[in-house]
User: Fold these one by one.
Assistant:
Number 1:
Amino acid sequence: MTSSTARRLGIMGGTFDPIHHGHLVAASEVAHLFELDEVVFVPTGRPWQKSERKVAAAEDRYLMTVIATASNPRFSVSRIDIDRPGPTYTIDTLREMRQIHGPGTELFFITGADALAKMLTWRNAADMFTLAHFVGCTRPGHHLSDPGLPKGRVSLVEVPALAISSTECRDRVRAGEPIWYLVPDGIVQYINKRGLYRD
Ligand SMILES: Nc1ncnc2c1ncn2[C@@H]1O[C@H](COP(=O)(O)OP(=O)(O)OP(=O)(O)O)[C@@H](O)[C@H]1O
Ligand SMILES: O=C(O)c1ccc[n+]([C@@H]2O[C@H](COP(=O)([O-])O)[C@@H](O)[C@H]2O)c1
């Protein structure tokens, strides 16, 4: 039962390798549409569905997420997925968030269309829907449809579409191409300072 005084907390999980404006616009738009009090960005520790490729160090991805969200008073970053040993499963993220914030907080897990389409392959998928409402956002190149997820627990929303991916940002850095304006300025500077994505 939803109480009108319940706190509404958004959770934006991602590998954020690196974080880009597509992530930030999706979180901002969902916060507006669902009247969220806060959106917590949760960088993955060990993203098991990306195990076939090299992922930047968790501390670099965490720090980039902090830099990118620092100017928005409604955005924050959590280390819970980075600090938990083993592969990162959203069921664990949601259980931990529920424990931290208690029953007076409604949880909204924010994903892009690609992640939503794969959600039934996630660990303990059925249990996740008892812990949070899921919000799937449009993403260029990915069709936004309901892939048989539980009715009433998933909302599909149109957000201003930004054709940006972390893969493209990494490829551009590797090729010596600019990523200015695809990511916040501080992220361009952090990537240069740490020499990320050059190999
Ligand atoms: N441009 C975008 N618009 C809307 N949602 C996005 C966009 N980019 C990523 N997302 C969503 O943000 C979440 C975290 O994404 P992730 O960190 O994997 O970024 P990515 O750009 O998909 O990375 P990669 O290209 O390395 O796979 C996922 O739910 C993903 O669907
Ligand atoms: O729980 C799972 O099995 C699971 C499998 C793949 C992805 N996720 C979560 O989905 C979010 C986006 O993941 P990614 O890999 O697209 O960055 C992030 O919070 C991941 O932990 C979760």
Note: The pocket of adenosine-5'-triphosphate (ligand 1) is lined by residues 14-17, 22-23, 26, 111-112, 114-115, 137, 139, 162, 164-167 (CB under 6 Å).
Number 2:
Amino acid sequence: MAQADTVAFIGGGNMAGSLIGGLLAGGFDPTAIRVAEPNAEHRAALANARPGIRVTADNVEAASGADCVVLAVKPQVMAEVAAGLNALPDGSVFLSIAAGVTCTRLATWLGTDRAIVRSMPNTPALIGCGATGAYANPAVEPGQRALADRILHAVGEVVWFDDERALDAVTALSGSGPAYVFLLIEALEAGGIELGLEPDVARRLALLTAHGASRLALKSDDSPGVLRTKVTSPGGTTEQALGVFEKGGLRELVAQAMQAAAQRSRELSGE
Ligand SMILES: NC(=O)C1=CN([C@@H]2O[C@H](COP(=O)(O)OP(=O)(O)OC[C@H]3O[C@@H](n4cnc5c(N)ncnc54)[C@H](OP(=O)(O)O)[C@@H]3O)[C@@H](O)[C@H]2O)C=CC1
Ligand SMILES: O=C(O)[C@@H]1CCC=N1
């Protein structure tokens, strides 16, 4: 990344921490990163963990003159936060990671004609394995989009969309998705314990299984469905387990859960 680029994070919580970690791991100059965070303890922890970055309680101070202003606060406080940045001069690209909040709403608060990228990362960003969906509004210039892409790319893969509505689906799939996978891992661990395994062994096997299956599917030319059939010996054990999942309507349940998440994403837009 060109060292002239400066990035300001408004909100120094979990996701901001992940993105900052990715940028630093990729060699980004820490002195080109500023973070505005209201909580003094969080500010101190950030400054300690990430020597060189500048922390402040003042959102405008952090955002002033930054090439990219990352809006990393909860959707519920976005209106107040964005309105507080309304007087900033043009020139920055605003990169929102908030669930649901549309570019149109952001422009209402930040000012019309603002260059805005709406994105949806996920928590595996913390270890560089993130999956992010992103949309750039028409005011975003190619160089600004490239800067947003480099920031998001620092923590994993990025998929760009021409239609902003796709972001609600992305939120329901990869944004919230790590929680679904963790739920399955928790259930596998509990099932293993019930079958007599020691808790630490059950957790380890559940984690390694999720990790191994995911890596295999990523590397393989076979679809997940084909890989599933390769585990499932006719008349064997997997067939019995999958029969229980299908009878219980697991696929329908997952689809319903994702519809609920996407609906909540649309609601959070406040439109
Ligand atoms: N967690 C996830 O898996 C994902 C979250 N997101 C989105 O990322 C955004 C941030 O989520 P996450 O990092 O989990 O949340 P966090 O609560 O960890 O981070 C939000 C941070 O914003 C700070 N904050 C609150 N009010 C203000 C303000 N007025 N000005 C500046 N900072 C403020 C909070 O401080 P304090 O704690 O003191 O209130 C907190 O440190 C959300 O919009 C969420 O939708 C996107 C993808 C995945
Ligand atoms: O639960 C949420 O609203 C956020 C957005 C996606 C993941 N966490």
Note: The mean pLDDT is 95.
Number 3:
Amino acid sequence: MRSDVTAAAAALGATFPGVTPPDAQALRDAQARQRDLTKPPGSLGRLEDVGCWVASCQGQCPPRELARVRVVVFAGDHGIARAGVSAFPPDVTAQMVRNFRRGGAAVNAIADSVGAGVRVVDVAVDGHLPGADRSVDDDAADHDADPVRAYKVRAASGRIDREDALSAEETITAIGAGRAIADEEVDAGADLLIAGDMGIGNTTPATAIVATLTGLEPVVAVGRGTGIDDAAWMRKTAAIRDAMFRARHFVGDPVALLRTIGGADLAAMAGFLAQASVRRTPVVLDGLIATAAALVAAQLAPGCPDWWLAGHRSAEPAHDAALERLHKQPLLDFGMRLGEGTGALTAVPVVRAAVATLSNMSTFADAGVSGAAD
Ligand SMILES: Cc1cc2ncn([C@H]3O[C@H](COP(=O)(O)O)[C@@H](O)[C@H]3O)c2cc1C
Ligand SMILES: O=C(O)c1cccnc1
């Protein structure tokens, strides 16, 4: 039976109001201020662009220091994981959710180091897998009242090479869940949002979505995920080929794409990323999973990519294609391939440096420093 929360999420639906662009006047003010600061014009390189982007998102120059950076980790299992496409067993998803809650995952460590908050949402974790570690849920005394499960759509999305990931109703509920979560975060004062992922097998639907939307051949798009061997890579490539065939008519239909070859986590992330833009809140994109969801969100709510910055370039080949399609140049290129929001979080200090320089440096006039010779 549906909870009040998921019914409310479904009511939000997949039809988005228009996305308004970041503030053009604040952008011009920021660009002018960059020229007045005590440095040769342009000498801070892309840091200057990032600072200007934050100012335009905030609608003010100089921009405010980021006070509440939040990462929401969308956890969900995928039926395709049973096809041997990952180096790890599906049980790891639920086990990692427990690890996130205890603060022991990479996302927790990096978030702590950059002063960000982490929220985990179980949208489709499978708690009943054969051989699953049942003890992972022991921490939650009352499962129904557990906030991590408030937006649960289903247990594991469908096996996308053979069946739809979601029903039509589940797809709308999942998109609405992501929207509701973005609303909650913005209402609680978030000034920078990150979508993270946790779900064994999730590079398979993410790659299938990116390849479908960018026209990539599966053999070019498929990466090693958690570190699969050649045999698993061949199984994964076949699964992605079959999934792409099932979705071939849905290149222009983002809701159908999420339903056929996405999943509840990807749908919720897409809703979250689109709604952040509706709410005029900047986002740093993470790796392949988040960027696959972003490509779909860009179809759901045209104009939302203006509110996004690419945090890093994942080692996954399909991530590059997705970034290119979004015209995004990533801030970092560290060979990271973890997800969870870790790549985006690692880029947060760069964003903070961009804001700090634009806000706190003196102008030539204030500091009594001579400008460039005529
Ligand atoms: C311990 C562990 C922690 C993770 N944190 C994120 N992922 C990431 O790796 C998985 C995707 O790769 P694939 O498609 O190959 O399964 C997802 O769980 C993703 O969130 C993890 C994976 C593991 C094993
Ligand atoms: O780029 C990502 O987000 C990614 C890559 C590998 C495994 N999990 C996530």
Note: Residues 203, 225-226, 286-289, 314, 316, 319, 337-339 surround nicotinic acid (ligand 2) (CB under 6 Å).
Number 4:
Amino acid sequence: MTPEVITVIGGGSWATAIIRILSENDVRIRWWLRNRQDAEHIRKYHHNPRYLSGVTLHPKKVKPFTRLSEAVKGAGILVLAVPGAFISDVLSQLRPEDFAGKTIVSAIKGMVPGENLLVTDWLEKHYGVSQDQFCVIAGPCHAEEVALEKQSYLTIASSDRERATRFAGLMRCRFVNTHPLTDLYGVEYCAVMKNIVALACGICHGLGFGDNFQAVLVSNAMQEIKRFLDVIYPYYRDLMGSAYLGDLLVTSYSQFSRNRTFGSMIGKGYSVTSAQAEMNMVAEGYYAVKSIDEINRKYEVDMPITRAVYTILYEKASPATEIAQLKELLT
Ligand SMILES: NC(=O)c1ccc[n+]([C@@H]2O[C@H](COP(=O)([O-])OP(=O)(O)OC[C@H]3O[C@@H](n4cnc5c(N)ncnc54)[C@H](O)[C@@H]3O)[C@@H](O)[C@H]2O)c1
Ligand SMILES: O=P(O)(O)OC[C@H](O)CO
């Protein structure tokens, strides 16, 4: 069989980890990065100089590109792995024809700010990608642990089960187990919302709250996510599954969590700008909380955790005061 040709778009940790996983299988990867020097470095030394630099990339299977129109040529699968805030800018070089007939995989756990759309909805609106072309990579998995080849699990969601199963096969390897699911939008929304919860966990940690409080916060957050999903996209789903609860747990508790780290700085008194400047990485929850809060103005679901994080980050409310109020609402 001829190897599957896959274009991966993005130069960060998750793109690097996905390439590491995929290249365990029989694939050819066309990797788009925006930075010319990084691409040149990868061509020469076979590792990403900025993210997960300890990961060696297969020289025959992985080919870096800096022109996106070139990178997508001949690929049957496009994997999007840039933060949601940059997707519109990055894809502006492409036309709807570049997506036609391909499997479009979103590895993004964020919304498209401004339009408050899930990445799949945004691609449908702007590039005419049809719903059954999409797969979403979900599940509790940090790029840093993939780099260490620690056993991980991923869920591949698509409304087309066959497509999810095929892509799940390509993402399965020695240290990654995968399974398909059909709750495309539920999984995508949950992945966006768990980042908001991780921000809340970080803020509370930064304020000095302990494990007892965090356990209550996370269990209340799961109920908040359920209330929102039941209204925005009702579907028979088991929220105890690893794509939902599992992802919420890893992001809330892990030392690798970008969102928790960002939140912790806010709880300790950093401004948003200084917390962002400290990180070489992107905390998706910062953008997501604005989108979800704005979407919820229409639905009016009871979401005290989202509201508190929004008020702290966007209205500059005191974290101590907001969390003191939230404390009274948790059960
Ligand atoms: N890192 C993980 O473990 C992990 C796991 C699952 C999902 N994700 C998701 O993957 C997506 C990518 O995150 P990541 O962790 O790879 O990013 P990261 O935080 O490691 O790196 C930041 C990324 O943003 C890009 N970037 C920064 N400024 C940019 C700009 N102006 N224009 C275009 N790109 C710009 C950088 O090139 C880099 O790719 C996010 O949606 C994230 O939620 C990450
Ligand atoms: O935990 P974070 O904030 O680094 O987000 C990364 C992934 O979404 C975890 O699955």
Note: The CA atoms of residues 69 and 93 lie 7 Å apart.
